[in-house]
Write a structure and sequence with these properties.
Oligomer: heterodimer
Distance between the termini of chain B: 36 Å
Radius of gyration of chain A: 13 Å
Number of strands of chain B: 11
Strand content of chain A: over 45%
Largest interface: A-B, 21 and 26 residues
Number of strands of chain A: 9
Largest sheet of chain A: 5 strands, mixed
Strand order of the largest sheet of chain A: 1-9-8-3-4
Order of helices and strands of chain A: EEEEEEEEE
Helix content of chain A: under 10%
Distance between the termini of chain A: 35 Å
Chain lengths: 111, 119
């Protein structure tokens, strides 16, 4: 069972920041927060992950609350190509535990 | 990021035939690979976990005799759908974990998927 809760859909204007929230109130101390996205008819693409500190890479920023019960993925300047389903997943960083996907958030970037 | 190659991208077959899907990690060794299935408008569902050199572990409800998984090397896993029927039509996606030790590793990478249509 997915251990995260995400809104089913969001819209974002092209060029604006897209802020995608995720609740993971039952996250345990050894679990990381991973974000993936799936563009239509493709395999999921890794975006970013973090434990408790905010993280940034070339694709996005990840903001994790101090109590780690929620996080926000930020796409700073959304483009039409960012239209996809975004999945927030919690999982231990080590070991063989596979990613378990929930329903994710369908982000539509609008021109 | 690391590349996972999946082949074929699309296959159409007649009912009763078998279909093999290949999954390769191109620039890293993957001791563990995963197979997922995705039906239209649904999320990915884990089918099985495949460890190199050992038998795959199947999720509840997935028939191991129907979905044969072989993980013979550190870079190749195959999924064979045996005696395929129309209800097996789906989007099959493989995934491999980069087990490199170090910060920001142990990330799971995905292939592009195989769309299977059984007539």
């Amino acid at each position: 069972d997915a251990k995260t809760t995400q809104p089913p859909s969001m819209d974002c204007a092209e060029g604006r920041a897209a802020n995608l929230p995720c609740n993971h109130s039952t996250i345990s101390g050894n679990e990381y927060v991973y974000w993936y996205r799936q563009i239509h008819s493709q395999g999921p693409q890794y975006i970013i992950h973090g434990l408790k500190n905010n993280e940034t890479n070339e694709m996005a920023s990840l903001i994790i609350t101090e109590d780690r019960k929620s996080s926000t993925l930020i796409l700073p300047h959304a483009t039409l190509r960012d239209t996809a389903v975004y999945y927030c997943i919690v999982r231990p960083r080590t070991g063989n535990t596979p990613l378990v996907f929930g329903k994710g958030t369908r982000l539509s970037v609008i021109a | 990021g690391a590349v996972v190659s999946q082949h074929p991208s699309r296959v159409i077959c007649k009912s009763g035939t078998s279909v093999k899907i290949e999954c390769r990690s191109l620039d890293f060794q993957a001791t563990t690979m995963f197979w997922y299935r995705q039906f239209p408008k649904q999320s990915l569902m884990l089918m099985a976990t495949s460890n190199e050199g050992s038998k795959a572990t199947y999720e509840q409800g997935v028939e191991k005799d129907k979905f044969l998984i072989n993980h013979a090397s550190l870079t190749l896993s195959t999924l064979t759908v045996t005696s395929a029927h129309p209800e097996d039509s789906s989007f099959y996606i493989c995934s491999a974990r980069d087990r490199t030790v170090g910060d920001a590793k142990n990330i799971q990478y995905f292939g592009a998927g195989t769309r299977l249509s059984v007539l």
